Amino acid sequence: MTRNLGESKVILTYLENRYGKIFNLTMDEEKELQKTIILDHEEDDLKKMFNRVEGAINIAKDSQSLNVQPFSFFMVMITVLSSAAVGVLTASMALLNSIFGKYLDDKKMSKKEISDLLTSLDFTPVFHSVIWAVAIPFLIVLIVWGLYHRSVTKNIDKRYSVYVLLKECIDDYDKIKRQVEPTEE
């Protein structure tokens, strides 16, 4: 948490500690921040900071596929759980079918008795079990992925805004230095 560039490890942290808020600024505030950064640093320092931020962006891009891997695994697990739930549902229906098939074959029942028997069957617990077995893991993965995605994109957005800020500082370096330096007569 240093305000000295030579002692800092992360450029974003250094800039935030030294200059305060550096994101979501108006154009005028950003211009003033650029001017302050240019006056506080040499052009070589700005280029070094720019290269470090660019490197951090490239590393984030390169490792993004690794960040998605766990969620791909969880999606496969949800598919497996869904298949297992459908299997449980199918097996329970087949069991009920065989039990009632034997029961109905042994007895002669009227249509009214068959209708009453079928309406007395309650498959709600089986359906609820299947729905919960699929829905709960899906919702958990969706919530975790949403939170993770928000934190990752927030960091990438910060890096890109600092990247643009430093690029503009490097581009305007000579112009700002000439405006501020007194002319010798």
UniProtKB/TrEMBL annotation:
Name of the protein this chain belongs to: Uncharacterized protein
Transmembrane segments annotated in the record for this chain: 71-100, 126-148
Protein's organism: Bacillus tequilensis
Top-level division of the source organism's lineage: Bacteria
Keywords: Membrane, Transmembrane, Transmembrane helix
